[in-house]
TrEMBL record:
This is High-affinity zinc transporter periplasmic component. GO terms for biological process: metal ion transport. Gene3D superfamilies: Nitrogenase molybdenum iron protein domain. It comes from Gimesia algae. Keywords: Signal, Transport.
Length: 316
């Protein structure tokens, strides 16, 4: 019987050893070997991270393609995923309502606006509204669309790269190399903006809400916000406000986030205002990426401004 017992004992020990190895393997897959999960709040941040990292990171932009990332709110399952992420990269300046409403672990959150504190633009009358029968009053706020100035996007990318390296030091060389490539890819946009600034400085524009202030500052322009709600037809009060502003300012240009309808375009033209649509790219484009879409939009903007210059110039 003794040899038989020895065989069974050896078999038992081998089984224990195999089980322990399997447990260790599963634990390894569940920690260091799995991709690091990084959650973002909008497409520009997604574009930056996609430009910086490889398969060792998993990037999650939880906002559905047909939802506005500024006001979208996640469901319970998505909330759980977000809270378990290795890193949550937010925009700051109160962009994305869900960031303000969820309890997020501070150690995992990177607020990219902190990297550009010196460049932030605060609008005194960011939001104007009424309470009950009282008169209108306003609240100051910080404009959140930093990436419309590629120089600020590059500074966001610097901060993100450092945080990603802290998360995965082994990827430092790759991330730093990709960061330089990203900055090179932004150079043509800066060149286009330099040309626009040189050719069309000092312009005054209307916009519905605070979106284009960083772009305007980059181009030496002034933005006048109308406090019109996005994608909502202006009411009688809105048109009266515009009429009053036109009597004071006589501004002939307006930037819109989405293409205005024919009726709105015609009515603005009657007020002497020409509209250019510039998508701020808070959501991923259907084709191309941030750089290619911004390049194309800036080309169209230059053509638009050239045409406006010809129209406004007296014939000799």
């Amino acid at each position: 019987m003794q040899p038989v017992l020895k065989v069974f004992s050896l078999f038992f020990l081998l089984m224990i050893s195999a089980c322990q190895s399997k447990t260790d393997e599963v634990q390894q897959q569940g920690t260091g070997e799995r991709p690091r999960l990084v959650v973002v709040v909008n497409y520009p941040l997604q574009f930056i991270i996609e430009s910086l990292v490889g398969p060792e990171f998993q990037i999650l932009n939880p906002v559905p393609p047909d939802e506005n990332p500024e006001i979208w709110l996640p469901g319970d399952a998505t909330i759980q995923t977000i809270q378990q992420a290795d890193l949550i990269i937010t925009n700051g300046a109160d962009f994305a309502d869900w960031v303000k409403k969820l309890s997020l672990p501070r150690s995992k959150v990177l607020r990219t606006s902190l990297a550009i504190k010196d460049a932030l633009i605060t609008v005194p009358d960011f939001e104007v509204h009424r309470h009950g029968t009282g008169g209108a009053h306003s609240h100051a706020g910080t404009v959140a669309f930093f990436w419309l100035d590629p120089r600020l996007m590059a500074r966001q990318a610097d901060a993100i790269a450092e945080r990603l390296i802290n998360l995965d030091p082994e990827s430092e060389k790759e991330i730093r190399a990709n960061l330089e490539k990203l900055k090179v890819s932004l150079k043509p946009l800066n060149q286009q903006l330099d040309q626009i600034q040189e050719g069309y400085p000092g312009l005054h524009w209307y916009c519905r809400r605070p979106v284009y202030q960083y772009l305007a500052k980059r181009c030496d322009w002034t933005m006048h916000q109308l406090h019109w709600k996005s994608n909502v037809k202006p009411n009688l009060e809105d048109w009266e406000q515009l009429k009053s502003l036109q009597e004071q300012q006589n501004i002939s240009l307006m930037l819109c986030e989405t293409e205005p309808g024919q009726e709105l375009t015609k009515r603005l033209q009657e007020q002497g205002i020409s509209v250019f649509t510039l998508n701020p790219l808070t959501m991923a484009p259907t084709q191309g990426d941030y750089v290619s879409n911004m390049q194309l939009q800036l080309i169209h903007l230059q053509k638009f401004l050239k045409q406006q210059q010809k129209t406004s110039s007296p014939e000799k």
